[in-house]
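Weekly modeling sync, notes
Attendees: S.R. (lead), two postdocs, one rotation student

Agenda item 3: backlog of single-chain predictions. S.R. asked that every request posted to the team notebook include the full sequence so nobody has to chase files. The rotation student volunteered to paste the first one in as an example of the format we agreed on. Action items at the bottom.

Example entry:
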Amino acid sequence: QGAARAQGLCWDIRCNRYVTCGSTECAGSSSRSSTYRNTTRRRSKTYRTKRRGPSRAQILRKRRAAAARAQRKKMLRLNDAGLAFSRAGQYRQAVAQYEQALSACSRPKDCKIIRNNKKIASDKLWNQQYEEKRKREKAEMDKKKVAARQQIGQMLHGLGANWGSGGAQAPGGANGLDFGPLSGRTVTLSPPGTPALGKQGHDQTARRLRDLRDQNRSALTALVPASQSPKASADDKTGKPGEDLRTTTHHSRLAAGVSGTAAKDQAMRGFDTGGSGLAPLPAGIVDLSGRPVNMGNQIPKDIGAVIPKKLQSQVGQKLAGDAAWKQLLDKRQAIEQKRAAIKQDRKRLQDQMAKAANEAARQKLTRQILSTYQQEKSARDALFAVKMQQKAKAEKTAKEIEIVLIDGGGEAPPPGGGASGTEKKTEPPPPNTAR
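Predicted structure, as returned to the notebook:
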């Protein structure tokens, strides 16, 4: 380029060659140079133009959004139609509309709402169909009843006309059913032996029911001896009789204020009513309360129930001289007295709570009452342990006496004393050697 300038030459882009500087040789050249110039020098400006209109992807997105909006509008119209049918009571059409709305549904939230509406309409449709079926069956049954009643009436009318005219006689003689005319005739409605209608018949029926109830009561009393009945035990403190478990239920005991544990004790053992629970004792020794007792026969009823009657007298005499038995009796009596004192203390605390003025006093009394419950539970458990010891000792003594009688060849005297020639000698069963 420096040599060309020294010679006075310049590069002319119009003809793409060196020419004399300032000459017009390339002024009338072809358009190829201008085209080249435009494409090379101004390429960025020539092709950097803005596109007009949306792209193909934008057009597709707009079409899809429009289709989704149209489908949702259709779904909303179907759902509104189903609601209108439901309000009008046309549940079958409502269910059909909801099904179409579900087929056009695309959003999970909308589908859940439509599905719930369809379930409600389906339930009401089922109830409506059930009621219609019931009404239809009832109407059919009423029609059948009316037809059967009319048919029976026609049959009876025909029978009455035949019997009244002197034709066929009523079966069964005078005591049979007679549908003939009532003029000058006697109609018997009951078979022979049954009481007549009216006050006399009612009185006879009531009398027969009373006699039957008395017989059942006598039989039940004979089955349950008075010595083993729970009612035989009485409360020495209050004088209230014990509960008869044959006529008193568990719920009635709870309603009367008896706790669940006490009711269970009464039902199992029949002696825990707050008193001593001992059998009536003949005259003899005087106990702690000043009553005359006979230590030879002082066996609690719950213990005597497990001993044969023919051995009760001998067992009582043998236990009377046993120091351990006397200690058990004293311990049992002390525990029962302690339980009675605990119950009285609890009743006093409950009365105080009913009259308590503020919440703090009631809470304090509540804690004291709970403490009495714990004390009574401990006393009850101790009493139960003593009773189990007495029962085991009495059973062991009875077995020893029975073994002595069997080995000696004698027989146990009857419960009232004296010899009895009707009782047979008891023999031990043979040993069981079978595997």
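Discussion: group reviewed the output briefly. DSSP finds 13 helices and four strands in the chain.
Action items: rotation student to repeat for the remaining queue; S.R. to check formatting next week.
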